[in-house]
Amino acid sequence: MVGSWDGSQSDDSSHFERGVDHIYEAFICPLTKEVMHDPVTLENGRTFEREAIEKYFKQCSDSGKPPSCPLTSQTLSSTDVSPSIALRNTIQEWRSRNDAAKLDIARQALFIGNDENDVLQALMHVRQICRSIRSNRQGVRNFQLIRMIIDMLKSNSHKVRYKALQTLQVVVEGDEESKEILAEGDTVRTLVKFLSHEPSKGKEAAVSLLFELSKSETLCEKIGSVNGALILLVGLTSSNSVNVSIVEKADRTLENLERSEEIVKQMASYGRLQPLLGKILEGSLETKLSMATFLGDLALNNDMKVLVAQTVGSSLVDLMRSGDMPQREAALKALNNISSFDGSAKVLIDIGILPPLIKDLFYIGPNNLPIRLKEVSATILANIVNIGYDFDKATLVSENRVENLLYLISNTGPAIQCKLLEVLVGLTSCPKAVIHVVSAIKTSGAIISLVQFVEVRENNDLRLASIKLLHNLSPFMSEELAGALRATAGQLGSIVAIISEKTPISEEQAAAAGLLAELPERDLGLTRELLGVGAFEKIISKVNGIRHGEIKGMRFTMNFLEGLVRILSRITFAFNNEPRAVAFCREYNVASLFIHLLQSNGQDNIQMVSAMALENLSLESVNLSRTPDLPPPSYCGSIFSCMSKPPVVTGLCRIHQGICSLRETFCLVEGEAVEKLVGLLDHENDKVVEASLAALSSLLEDGLEVEKGVQILDEADGIRHILNVLTETRTERLTRRAVWVVERILRIEFIAIEVAKEPNVSAALVDAFQNGDFRTRQIAENALKHIDKIPNFSAILPNMA
């Protein structure tokens, strides 16, 4: 009878079949109801299967009963049994005849296209025979049944394929010759295919058969060489399959395959790293070298890098310290591969990679590293110092190490120069270390040679590293950098060319813009050179492109835009001595752009710089606002006509009393910038508030009608906000600026009367009068006089006189 395909069919059958002898009753054990393998006879002449009767006697003993015959219940004097040799031989002869008959029947049934039930019955008989008498595997081979069973793997029936896999498992178990027969041709490839295409039961049977084959060392290479075998097996071990047996058998199969070093390497490339790491830890020196070399070129994700560092990091560092150059090379390349992630680099630092790494980099003498390996050492060091892990980088700048780095940079090729510059980039990113680097560069005068790298065209990585380094140095060496860039033709133009490249915004462009942004804004010579190379035209084009969404770049856009705005603002510091600055700002309507940039919410520095630029532009408005020509007086025909009113000129600027516009004279009033600047007085960032207040104060400067300026501020609700800035007293600089503006506002009598009623304002002015610097105290004193908190003696004394 044939049961369901999933394995519920019993392999036992009592049906008489053609060519098969009847089972004689004497062959059947009364206890097991099965044909006996080792019949034994009791003292009363009854015969049983040895294993069954011994189990029965044990049950009697455990229950405290005397031994008895299971059939007659007769008490026995002894549990001794005698082997029934004649019966055993008869059964074996009978079984051999029947097995031969069954194998012959199976051979006739195992063909594709035969009735499925006949095929399944034949497979069952083969399993029965192999399980009952192991010696009959020779008979299976003689009938070439293995090849016929293998052919059943091509059946369209899941049931047949599943039972064929089970049958092959039984046939080859513990039989090396049968395994060799099975492994011939494409059978192993078929089993591998079943790992991904068969249902769960079939997949389990396939992986179980592969596990059995993998016990043969000669077949491991065969399995490993099948395309997809290793990756599928590794995938099964890491899957969340509900079939635990599949995962376990796949794992044990891979363990058997680990005897081959080449297979171990392939496993590692598919994510199963532990075997490779184990050989680095415990293998021979030759094996360690082979595995470390492979590890150096292996693609690893970040989790894998941490695992490798934790498992074999110390072993790799030990290899790096060895005197054998191939071992050192393999270790360095492997360490380089795992040092590029913060987590793994932290592990390497903790296990002590830095001292031998630095020694290898700087050491010159017997057995020193060749320059190509010094490049690898420099790469590892660059990776480590540029990670986010906050270790004490100051130790790397002691003992003249920065000077050694600078020396190597000057005396090596581009590849290692790039990595050494990246080391300096990492060191200058650390507040504690950057001071030492700056000091060494200033002392050695190396800034000139460092600046030269910005002109490199054939090595983009080298140029990027140099620009990032100069960007990090620029807050501490802005004047030296400006001098170096002015001294050599072409370098400033190279940086501008990088900024203006028509590509998605890159890290290099952001760093180049940041570098120029840090240079002294009042360096007129530098501004003139920037004008000469057309820098400002290119920068304003980039700014507008970003604002309008025409230039994109996810990671570096904000930093790039901030740098561009800061560079552009420097032109507003050159009005006094450079006519081209005014002409440029008029042509490109720079004032309008900065007003728009005031609304860059969330970008504090851009808002601050824009307000500072608007202050400079507004201060220049006085010089640019033009008083219109009055019409000539008409001829007096009579004495009455000469007494008429002079001509009235309309459309003049309220604050500058001339003809103004945002584009031509940079007038904040005409550009409707006052309300926007007032809005920023509530900003959380004190620097933004200070810059906005400074821009507004340009409307109250000497030479302007203060009353008109105050009126304009009042219309924009600016006075209330300015007084709030004063009373909040957040920083000394902001207080100083606020006191100056408030004193101007209080010159208007009716406002002074109202403000005098505000105790908070009075208290803030008194505090500035008592605790401010000399100039602030003077201005605060005048403000207090305006609100009658301090007597105005200059007005009283003339009356007394």
UniProtKB/TrEMBL annotation:
Record keyword Transferase present: yes
Pathway stated in the Swiss-Prot or TrEMBL entry: Protein modification; protein ubiquitination
EC identifiers of the protein: 2.3.2.27
Enzyme class at the top of the EC tree: transferase
SUPFAM superfamilies assigned to the protein according to its UniProt record, in alphabetical order: ARM repeat, RING/U-box
Keywords: Repeat, Transferase, Ubl conjugation pathway
Reactions mediated catalytically: S-ubiquitinyl-[E2 ubiquitin-conjugating enzyme]-L-cysteine + [acceptor protein]-L-lysine = [E2 ubiquitin-conjugating enzyme]-L-cysteine + N(6)-ubiquitinyl-[acceptor protein]-L-lysine
The U-box domain, residue ranges: 22-101
InterPro entries from the UniProt entry: ARM-like, ARM-type_fold, Armadillo, RING-Ubox_PUB, U-box_domain_protein, Ubox_domain, Znf_RING/FYVE/PHD
A Gene Ontology molecular function term of the record: ubiquitin protein ligase activity
Highest rank taxon of the organism: Eukaryota
GO biological process: one example: protein ubiquitination
Protein name (record): RING-type E3 ubiquitin transferase
Naturally occurring in which organism (per UniProt): Brassica campestris (Field mustard)
